[in-house]
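Supplementary notes for students who missed Thursday's class. We covered one full example, reproduced here. Read the sequence, then the structure, then the short commentary at the end.
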Amino acid sequence: MRKSLWAGTALVLIVAVFPINAAEPAEDRVKASLAKYLLAWNEPDEAKRRELLTGHWTTSGTYTDPSGHAEGLEGLVAHIGEFKSNPQFKGFSIVRTSGIDIHHQSLRFNWEMRTPNGKILTAGIDYGEFDDEGRITKIVGFFGPFPKMED
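Structure (token representation):
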């Protein structure tokens, strides 16, 4: 029985290009940054929000969702403050409801906005990007389910 020289070579190339079980070097830092980011969404105190985000959100980071756009750390602190001070959302919380999908300095996760008694007001998905140190540089949020396909 004759073995193909190319079959072995292709296997080596696949392993070299797509390493098995390779973790992102900054994955733990990204998860820590995302945890602080989510805590900031549930923090009513501006100074505490800023403290939670410092070191986890870059000073030039951007946040965009259907309700608005914020630039920089201070812009995000203020945007979250507007949400927290809106009487319509008093006591509401943002809760991550999925694992965190991470690759190539990008991430995504599902979340829910819940009323004070735990009822889901809306669900959504966030896409984000991070730097080499695991700090968030961009979040783009989407509210609600995906739209239906058009015929």
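Commentary. The first strand starts at residue 57 and ends at 65. The chain has one domain: 23-143. If anything here is unclear, bring it to office hours.
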